[in-house]
Design a protein that fits this description.
Blueprint (H helix, E strand, L loop, with lengths): L2 H21 L6 H33 L11 H16 L4 H4 L1 H23 L7 H23 L4 H11 L11 H15 L6 H4 L3 H6 L4 H23 L5 H13 L4 H25 L7 H25 L1
Length: about 325
C-alpha cells in the first residue's frame, strides 16, 4: 500500500470514529449533547495532535524511539508550577483561579526551562543531546521531589485540587483554554513549517546533519522550545499522559515504514486522534465510565514500553 493510501485510510478511520462519538445514541436532546461532545472532540484533537507531533520530533532529534519529552522533566515542571501556585498563593488566588493566566505562566516556565537547559548544556565542547537528557532526568526527579514536599505541607482540601491535575481526564477538559490553545497551535504551525524540511536530515544523526549543512544547534533549540509549548498545551487541557506519545509514534513508524517526516507526522497525529476518540467512546459506552482513558493508555503503553525494551535488548545481544 502506498504512503498516500495509508494516510487516506487513517483519515477514513478518523472520520468514522469522530462521527460515532458525535452522533451515536444522541437522543432527542441533541441540541444539549452535541455541542458538549463537539467540545470534547476538539480538546481530544488538540491534545492528541500536540502529543504525537512533539514526540515524533523529540525522538528524531534524540535518535531514540523509546523516549518521550517527559523524560527531560517537562511534565514534572508543569506539576511543580501548579503545586507552587497553590502552596504560595492559595487555591483562591488570582493565578490559581484564572486558567488563562495559569496556563500562560506554566507555558512560560516550561519554555524558559527548555531554553536554559539547552543554552547551558550546549556551551561546553563534547556535550551532546544525551548529556542534555541525563541532566533532564535529574531535573525531572528534582521537580517531582519538590512537588511532593510542598504537597505534604499544604491543606488537604487544596491538595485535592492539585490531585485533580495530576491525572489526565478527558471527562473534565479545560474548555476555557481551547481558544488560547488553538491560537498557540496555529502560531506554532506557521513558525515550525520552515524547519520541517530539516527533520529528515536530523534523523541521520548530529554529525551527518552538520556535514550536510544543517545548522544543528539552532534547529534543535527551536524544536525543543516547540516541544515544551506542545507538552504544556496537552498537559493543561487534560493532564499528563505518559505513554500516549510512545504508543502512537511507534505505531506510526511500524505502519508507515518510511523515514519521511511529512508522512510520519501526519500519520502519528491521525493515529493519536483515532486512538483517543475511539478509546473515549469505549470508556463511555462499553465501560460506562467505570475506568478512565488515561488508565487504559498508561497500562497499554507500559506493556508496549516493556516490549520495546526487550526487543532492543535482543537486537543488542545478537
Amino acid at each position: 500500500m502506498k504512503l498516500k493510501h495509508k494516510i487516506y485510510l487513517l483519515i477514513g478511520l478518523l472520520v468514522i470514529s469522530v462521527s460515532l462519538f458525535l452522533f451515536y445514541d444522541l437522543g432527542s436532546s441533541w441540541d444539549y449533547a452535541l455541542p458538549r461532545r463537539a467540545t470534547k472532540v476538539l480538546a481530544i484533537i488538540l491534545t492528541g495532535g500536540s502529543i504525537a507531533f512533539s514526540t515524533v520530533i523529540f525522538q528524531t532529534i534524540t535518535s531514540n524511539r523509546i523516549l518521550t519529552p517527559s523524560i527531560i522533566g517537562l511534565d514534572s515542571l508543569y506539576m511543580l508550577v501548579q503545586t507552587f501556585i497553590i502552596f504560595a498563593f492559595g487555591s483562591t488566588s488570582f493565578i490559581a483561579v484564572n486558567k488563562e493566566v495559569n496556563f500562560l505562566l506554566s507555558v512560560s516556565c516550561m519554555v524558559l526551562f527548555a531554553i536554559l537547559l539547552y543554552k547551558f548544556l550546549f556551551k561546553g565542547e563534547g556535550r551532546n543531546i544525551y548529556f542534555l537528557l541525563l541532566v533532564g532526568i535529574v531535573f525531572g526527579t528534582l521537580f517531582g521531589s519538590l512537588s511532593t514536599f510542598m504537597q505534604v505541607l499544604i491543606d488537604p482540601n487544596e491538595f485535592m485540587l492539585i490531585q485533580d491535575r495530576m491525572f489526565a481526564s478527558f471527562n473534565n477538559v479545560n474548555t476555557e483554554l481551547l481558544v488560547v490553545s488553538i491560537i498557540l497551535l496555529i502560531g506554532i504551525g506557521v513558525y515550525v513549517s520552515r524547519y520541517l524540511k530539516y527533520l529528515d536530515v536530523l534523523a541521520l544523526g548530529r554529525e551527518q546533519a552538520i556535514n550536510l549543512g544543517v545548522p544543528y544547534n539552532f534547529i534543535v533549540q527551536r524544536f525543543l522550545i516547540i516541544i515544551a509549548i506542545l507538552v504544556s498545551i496537552a498537559t493543561a487541557l487534560v493532564g499528563p499522559i505518559t505513554f500516549l506519545g510512545l504508543l502512537v509514534a511507534n505505531i506510526a513508524y511500524q505502519f508507515m515504514k518510511t523515514y519521511r517526516h511529512t508522512y510520519l507526522l501526519t500519520a502519528s497525529i491521525l493515529i493519536s486522534i483515532v486512538a483517543l476518540v475511539g478509546g473515549q467512546l469505549i470508556v463511555e459506552r462499553v465501560f460506562t465510565f467505570s475506568t478512565t482513558l488515561s488508565v487504559i493508555i498508561n497500562f497499554t503503553g507500559g506493556v508496549y514500553f516493556i516490549y520495546l525494551l526487550l526487543k532492543e535488548s535482543k537486537s543488542w545481544s545478537k
